[in-house]
Specification:
133 residues, alpha+beta, single chain, 17% strand, 6 strands
Length: 133
């Protein structure tokens, strides 16, 4: 699951608190839109071999958690974790014969887009805060 954490100044938390009280549905809508965009970017960052890894990306529903909201991204392909993180190779007898390095498609997508998405959410939060005042 991909994870973004926006932490920082007290002013950011105050703005988020006001918006959580006055417009929680708009937060969920924005996180849904951001999640859809992130899934597109993860698919574009994953090469097409059979297509199953690319098709497997999906955004999970927005969840309200302590102190904020959470939007998860996952891949439902059964072999995704093996490709993403790597795995050991074994012979038919079960003896270990090597290691296949992970490709880190989702992790790389997070690193490449984290700053841009955080800036976009911060800008959106400022605009919505001004609108709600």
């Amino acid at each position: 699951m991909a994870e973004f954490r926006l932490e920082g100044a007290e002013g950011f938390r105050e703005k988020l608190g006001l918006i959580k009280r006055k417009a929680p549905d708009r937060i969920m809508d924005k996180l849904d839109d951001t999640g859809k965009e992130f899934v597109k970017r993860a698919r574009a960052n994953t090469p097409k071999v059979s297509g199953n890894l690319r098709k497997g990306y999906m955004a999970l529903p927005v969840e309200k958690i302590a102190g904020g909201y959470q939007k998860g991204i996952t891949n439902k392909a059964p072999h995704f974790h093996l490709v993403e993180r790597g795995h050991r190779k074994v012979s038919r007898t079960g003896q270990e014969i090597g290691w296949t390095e992970g490709k880190f498609y989702l992790e790389r997508t997070v690193k490449e887009n984290e700053e841009e998405i955080a800036e976009d959410l911060d800008k959106w939060l400022d605009e919505l805060y001004k609108e709600l005042l």
